[in-house]
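About this split. The held-out portion is used to measure sequence recovery: a designer receives only the structure tokens and must propose an amino acid at every position. Recovery is the fraction of positions where the proposal matches the reference. Here is one held-out target exactly as it appears in the evaluation file.
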């Protein structure tokens, strides 16, 4: 093996399974100021490719969790959480998770999500990846300040 291969950073994605869902719960507790209920994790186990863990040199450091939503007008993907542990940010891991979701969401009309209005890094990240702010929801968050959220959307 050449030295460049030995020292290269290895990014890979993995499924969320009953055996590692506890790892996802721990990641989300560290990354997000919001506490997700047990139902969230049960649902994540049912969404197939719309939930994924990301590994950096075999260490699990982030995850994405989405759900499918159908209303009168469309079937769309709602991104519930996308997060990477702080020391591993700006290494391309968030984009890797997002690209995976976009690849597997082509059957849906759009993808949308909420971002706290003060979360500048997430807003930058999503805007760089083709999302646009389509709405502001007052008091979306009940237990964190500020409570308002932007709604970001990308047509698929
Ligand atoms: N400021 C400016 N641009 C940024 C920032 C930042 N803080 N973070 C990422 N970007 C840009 C990168 O520069 C990169 O663009 P480039 O390729 O042109 O250089 C692009 O976004 C992709 O960056 P990644 O390295 O793939 O992003 P990262 O792995 O850091 O993940 C994320 C971004 C998920 C938003 C991360 O900052 C994070 O985990 N934040 C905490 C959790 C969070 O707020 N998640 C989103 C909340 S909304 C929701 O979960 C649905």
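Reference sequence for scoring:
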């Amino acid at each position: 093996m050449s030295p460049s291969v030995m020292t290269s950073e290895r990014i890979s994605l993995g499924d969320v399974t009953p055996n590692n869902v506890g790892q996802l719960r721990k990641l989300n507790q560290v990354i997000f100021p919001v506490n997700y209920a047990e139902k969230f994790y049960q649902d994540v186990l049912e969404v197939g490719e719309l939930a994924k863990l990301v590994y950096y040199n075999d260490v699990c450091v982030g995850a994405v969790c989405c759900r499918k939503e159908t209303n009168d007008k469309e079937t769309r993907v709602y991104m519930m959480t996308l997060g990477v542990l702080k020391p591993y940010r700006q290494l391309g891991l968030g984009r890797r998770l997002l690209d995976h979701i976009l690849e597997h969401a082509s059957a849906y009309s759009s993808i949308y999500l909420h971002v706290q209005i003060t979360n500048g890094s997430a807003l930058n990240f999503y805007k760089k990846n083709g999302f646009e702010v389509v709405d502001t929801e007052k008091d979306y968050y009940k237990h964190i300040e500020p409570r308002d959220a932007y709604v970001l959307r990308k047509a698929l």
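Annotator remark: The longest strand covers residues 59-70.
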